[in-house]
Amino acid sequence: MSWYLLLLAGLFEIGWAIGLEYSEGFSKPGPTLGTAVAIVASMVLLARAVEDLPIGTAYAVWTGIGAVGTASLGVVLFDEPASPLRVAFIGLIVVGITGLHVVSGG
């Protein structure tokens, strides 16, 4: 169950990171509220996950999910570059997340 909470926390991290762009420096009320809700949800879920998972593993996976998701959506939503090297390095983060899950007995 903790791994599912961690996954959900990572998805909310993607949401608040993308929300930062849409909030335009917290000048737009709707995106700002959505960003704030996503931050709180992400932190609460991460806190619940670390009740059963080691903090180092949970934090690395949480930030990894956020980094991969945000970088991927940056390409799709904000026309950020998707060079082969960038995609390869994002892939390495995915390998790291998967490796931590496997060695942690998840």
UniProtKB/TrEMBL annotation:
| One Gene Ontology CC term in the entry | plasma membrane
Recorded hits in InterPro entries, A to Z, give: EmrE-like, Small_drug/metabolite_transptr, Small_multidrug_res
Keyword annotations for this protein, in alphabetical order, are: Cell membrane, Membrane, Transmembrane, Transmembrane helix, Transport
Query: How does the record say this protein sits in the membrane?
Result: Multi-pass membrane protein
Residue stretches spanning the membrane: 33-50, 57-78, 84-103
Superkingdom field: Archaea
Please give the Pfam families that the UniProt record associates with this protein: Multi_Drug_Res (PF00893)
Question: Quick one: where is this thing mainly located?
Answer: membrane
Q: Which molecular function terms from Gene Ontology are attached?
A: transmembrane transporter activity
Give the signal peptide range.
none
Q: Where in the cell is it found?
A: Cell membrane
Question: What is the name attached to this protein's record?
Answer: QacE family quaternary ammonium compound efflux SMR transporter
